[in-house]
Amino acid sequence: MAPPQLFYAHRDHAHEAALIAMADSVMQEHMVFPMLVDLADTVCRSTFGADSFTASTQLAHAQAGEPFRYLTRRQTRR
Questions:
Q1: Alpha-carbon separation of residue 58 from 9, 41, 52, 63 (angstroms)
Q2: In whole angstroms, how far apart are CA 74 and each of 21, 42, 45, 78?
Q3: What pLDDT digit, counting tens, does each position of 47-68 carry?
Q4: Residues 6+ apart with CB under 8 A from 57
Q5: Residue 73: which pLDDT band, with cuts at 50, 70 and 90?
Q6: Which of 26, 33, 66, 73 is most exposed, with the fewest beta carbons within 10 Å of its own?
Q7: Could you give the CA distance from residue 55 to residue 61 in angstroms, rounded to a whole number?
Q8: Where do the H-state alpha helices sit in 25-71?
Q9: What domain range includes position 25?
Q10: Distance separating the N- and C-terminal Cα atoms of the chain
Q11: How many structural domains does the chain have?
């Protein structure tokens, strides 16, 4: 019943880290959502914002050869 704590996992231990985050949701029956995922969402939203994430995903799609794949019709009219 402690507040969420930020932790880092080496990529070799990412599976175990995901299991910890999922197990954390058991403690929040009223929310049914892991506290650590909620904490990560808050940190990412306040640090990066939606615009920077959108720009990076569009760049990744362009580099993969699919620059317009996930854009809306309105976004492709520019």
A1: 27, 20, 10, 9
A2: 37, 29, 25, 8
A3: 877 777 788 888 898 999 988 8
A4: 70
A5: confident
A6: 73
A7: 10
A8: 35-47, 49-63
A9: 13-47
A10: 50
A11: 2
